[in-house]
């Protein structure tokens, strides 16, 4: 058996292999060509080099996708032709993509598998994969799935498994990352006295309407830390704002004088309202140590990051910092990007090396950094005066 990367010439045989292996949820020729061309994935083959000309040549394949800028890989698909099953082909392919991931500095592998696929589940669990979530009616025929995860370096064991991470919510518009991240953080912080809003598009939009800066460099306005903190306080949560400097966020990239004047007006209003609400606004560098201390003190932390390391776009973006350990920070990123073939599995509790996180938490030429900290307040939301 020869192990190599797939080429476009392999597509017809890969399609035939897919038809022989799966009754539904198959990859098409178009999808195979896409994955062979993209830079964020690798499609590895094991081929039978001793077969006759018209015999099945490709014994199996494994497709792995990488989440750029993170320490996460996803085993998107693995298949072995029926003629070669029972010969350890799948395990060899799994070992190959794991070693490829480690070679890229990626130390977490996730995958999804049918709950009733016992042979595959047995192989994955023997290889060290652990169940992290059940996926109800996940497949085309209504079958349930399981999400599994493995830490590829045996010396690293997170203190909190990914299965204990609260619910994920994906933003439904290109401009509501802040509200989506805040919804997840409020769900995690809520208690009997401080009930968070539902994870729903209308709540997401309402939060954006309260927290938006009105304008951004292009498109609809994003949300500032001050606006998000005010929205959380309105719902009964304690809130703080950390920022690297007392300037108007995102202003550097806006050239239109009218837009700049509106953003400055909104920013000053946010600051005055934060003062009235007792929301502390502190100049604070976002160091890993201070972020870890905030988490240990019970705060939920929203971080403003630059997406350049994730998708090569220099855009401000809000994520929820779920937890940290000695080596990694774990974020929920609400922007599930179809262009990068992402699914929730790729954006839920995403591991970032600590140094990667520190580099992401700076936006623009001024290296602006900002965070929103929230925790459940003592007063019921109904007892607070609406803003």
Number of helices: 12
- SSE ordering: EHHEEEHEHEEHHHEHEHEHEEHEHE
Approximately what portion of the residues adopt beta-strand conformation? Answer: 15-25%
Main beta-sheet annotation: 7 strands, mixed
| CATH topology type of the largest domain | Cathepsin B, Chain A
The share of residues in helices is: 25-40%
Tag the structure with descriptive keywords.
disordered C terminus; Aminopeptidase; 387 residues; elongated; single chain; alpha+beta; seven-stranded mixed beta sheet; 32% helix
Sum this structure up briefly.
This protein is an alpha+beta fold and 387 residues long. It is built from 12 helices and 14 strands. The strands form 2 sheets. A 7-stranded mixed beta sheet has the order 1-2-3-4-5-7-6, sandwiched between helices. Strands 9-8-14-10-11-12-13 form a 7-stranded mixed beta sheet, with helices on both faces.
What does this structure look like?
The chain has 2 domains: 2-153, Aminopeptidase (3-Layer(aba) Sandwich), CATH 3.40.630; 177-383, Cathepsin B, Chain A. The longest helix is centred in the C-terminal third of the chain and has 21 residues, at 257-277. It is elongated and about 75 Å long. The chain has a 7-stranded mixed β-sheet, with helices on both faces. Strands 9-8-14-10-11-12-13 form a 7-stranded mixed β-sheet, sandwiched between helices. Helix 5 packs across helix 6 (201-211), helix 6 crosses helix 7 (225-234) and helix 7 (225-234) packs parallel to helix 8. With 387 residues, it is of the alpha+beta class. Strand 11 and strand 12 (328-332) form a beta hairpin. 32% of the residues lie in helices and 24% in strands.
């Amino acid at each position: 058996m020869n192990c190599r990367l797939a080429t476009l010439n392999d597509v017809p045989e890969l399609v035939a292999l897919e038809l022989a292996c799966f009754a539904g949820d198959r990859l098409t020729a178009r999808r195979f060509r896409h994955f062979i061309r993209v830079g964020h994935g690798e499609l590895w083959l094991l081929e039978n080099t001793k077969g006759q000309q018209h015999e099945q040549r490709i014994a199996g394949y494994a497709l792995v996708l990488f989440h750029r800028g993170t320490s996460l890989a996803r085993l998107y698909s693995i298949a072995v032709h029926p003629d070669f099953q029972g010969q350890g082909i799948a395990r060899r392919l799994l070992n190959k993509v794991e070693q490829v991931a480690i070679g890229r500095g990626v130390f977490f592998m996730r995958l999804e598998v049918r709950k009733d696929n016992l042979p595959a589940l047995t192989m994955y669990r023997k290889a060290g994969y652990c169940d992290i979530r059940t996926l109800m009616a996940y497949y085309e025929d209504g079958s349930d799935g399981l999400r599994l995860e493995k830490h590829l370096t045996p010396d690293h064991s997170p203190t909190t498994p990914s299965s204990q991470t609260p619910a994920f919510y994906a933003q439904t518009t290109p401009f509501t990352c802040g509200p989506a991240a805040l919804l997840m953080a409020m769900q995690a912080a809520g208690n009997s006295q401080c009930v968070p809003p539902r994870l729903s598009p209308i709540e997401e939009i309402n939060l954006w309407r309260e927290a938006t800066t009105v304008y951004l460099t292009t498109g609809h306005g994003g949300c500032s830390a001050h606006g998000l903190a005010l929205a959380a306080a309105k719902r009964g949560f304690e809130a703080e704002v950390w920022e690297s400097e007392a300037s108007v966020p995102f202003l550097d990239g806006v050239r239109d004088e009218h837009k700049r004047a509106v953003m400055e007006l909104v920013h000053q209003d946010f600051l005055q309202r934060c003062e009235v609400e007792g929301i502390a606004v502190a100049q604070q560098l976002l160091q890993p140590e201070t972020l870890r201390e905030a988490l240990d003190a019970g705060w939920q932390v929203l971080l403003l990051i630059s997406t350049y390391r994730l998708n090569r776009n220099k855009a401000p973006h809000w994520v929820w910092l779920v937890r940290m350990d000695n080596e990694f920070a774990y974020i929920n990123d609400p922007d599930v990007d179809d262009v990068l073939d992402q699914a929730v599995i790729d954006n839920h509790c995403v591991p970032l090396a600590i140094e990667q996180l520190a580099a992401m938490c700076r936006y623009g030429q001024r290296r602006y950094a900002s965070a929103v900290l929230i925790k459940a307040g003592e007063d019921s939301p109904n007892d607070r005066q609406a803003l």
